[in-house]
Amino acid sequence: MSTTATTATTAADHAGSYQLGARRVKRLGYGAMQLAGPGVFGPPADPDGARAVLREALALGVDHIDTSDFYGPHVTNRLIREALHPYPDALTIVTKIGARRDAAGAWLPAASAQELESAVHDNLRNLGLETLDVVNLRSMISVHGPAEGSIEAPLAALAKLRERGLVRHIGLSNVTPVQLEEARRIVPVACVQNMYNLAHRGDDALIDLLAREGIAYVPFFPLGGFSPLQSDALSAVAQRLGASAMQVAIAWLLQRSPNILLIPGTRSLAHLRENLAAGRLQLDEEALAALDGIGAA
Question: Which domain holds residue 146?
Answer without folding.
Answer: 11-227+260-265
